[in-house]
Design a protein that fits this description.
alpha/beta; Arc Repressor Mutant, subunit A; Trna Endonuclease, Chain: A, domain 1; 2 domains; five-stranded mixed β-sheet; three-stranded antiparallel β-sheet; 8 strands; 17% strand
Length: 233
C-alpha cells in the first residue's frame, strides 16, 4: 500500500506520545506507529522493523516537523515531547474518551495479562504475554502459526490504537479479538469508538472489564484440574 499521507500520521504521533507519558524517542516511534495503520502489509511491517522502509521514516519525520512548527510537539536530539497544546488536540480528537479507574483499580495491566494467560492455559491453549504488538495471545499449540485469540488490555492510552491492533489480527487470521478495559463505566465509550471508526470489526470484538476477567480467573482456578481431565486426548 502507499505510505499514509503526512496529515494522517500527525494525530497518531500525538496520541502515541500521550500514551507513553508525553515523550518518546523517534527510533521507537517508527515501530510503535505501525499499530495505527492496520492496512500495512506484513511485508511492509517487516521492512519498517528492519529499518529498510525509508519512505515510512521520511513520512514520520515530515509529520513530526509539521507538528513542531505548529507547536504541538518539541523535537530535540531524537526525543519528541508533546506540548500542552498537543495534549489539547488529542483530547479534542478522542472526544473525551478517558478510561476511568473504578473499584477495579487494584488490578494492574500486568495482573490482567497474567490472568488472561492462566485462563488460556486452563482451557488448553498455549498462552503468551507481550507477543509482538499484542498484550496477550492464545494459540492452539506452541507451534501453531495462527493466533486463535488476541487480547488488548487497556488501562490507559489510546483506545483507537488498541482497536487497530485487534483489527489487524482479525483481518490477517480471523483471530478472535478481545478488548479488556478498566470498568463498566467505560463500556459505552469504547463501543461508541468501535462503532465510529472500526465498524468492520464491530460485530466480532468482545469487550470485557477487569472485574469480569478477575471473576473468570477465580472461577476457572477452582475447576482447573477438572477441565484438564476433559481436555485429555
Amino acid at each position: 500500500m502507499p505510505i499514509p499521507k503526512i496529515s494522517s500520521i500527525e494525530m497518531p504521533i500525538l496520541q502515541e506520545l500521550v500514551a507513553t507519558g508525553g515523550v518518546d524517542n523517534l527510533r521507537f516511534l517508527y515501530e510503535r506507529l505501525i499499530a495505527y495503520f492496520p492496512q500495512l502489509s506484513e511485508k511492509e511491517i517487516g521492512e519498517i522493523k528492519n529499518g529498510k522502509n525509508k519512505a515510512w521514516r521520511s513520512a514520520i519525520q515530515k509529520a513530526g516537523k509539521t507538528l513542531d512548527e505548529q507547536n504541538l510537539i518539541e523535537r530535540e536530539r531524537g526525543n519528541w515531547t508533546i506540548t500542552e497544546r498537543g495534549k489539547t488536540e488529542v483530547e479534542k480528537e478522542t472526544s473525551g474518551f478517558t478510561l476511568t479507574i473504578s473499584q477495579a483499580k487494584s488490578f494492574s495491566h500486568t495482573n490482567i495479562q497474567l490472568m488472561l494467560a492462566e485462563i488460556g492455559e486452563s482451557l488448553g491453549f498455549y498462552a503468551e504475554t507481550e507477543f509482538e504488538f499484542y498484550d496477550v495471545i492464545w494459540r492452539e499449540t506452541p507451534k501453531s502459526q495462527r493466533l486463535s485469540h488476541i487480547f488488548e488490555v487497556q488501562s490507559k492510552g489510546n483506545i483507537d490504537s488498541a482497536f487497530a491492533k485487534l483489527k489487524r489480527a482479525y483481518q490477517a487470521q480471523r483471530t478472535k479479538p478481545f478488548l479488556v478495559i478498566t470498568s463498566e463505566r467505560d463500556l459505552n465509550r469504547a463501543r461508541k469508538s468501535l462503532g465510529r471508526e472500526f465498524q468492520d470489526i464491530e460485530t466480532v470484538v468482545t469487550i470485557l472489564t477487569f472485574a469480569q476477567i478477575k471473576q473468570v480467573h477465580q472461577n476457572i482456578k477452582n475447576i482447573a484440574e477438572i477441565i484438564k481431565e476433559f481436555l485429555l486426548k
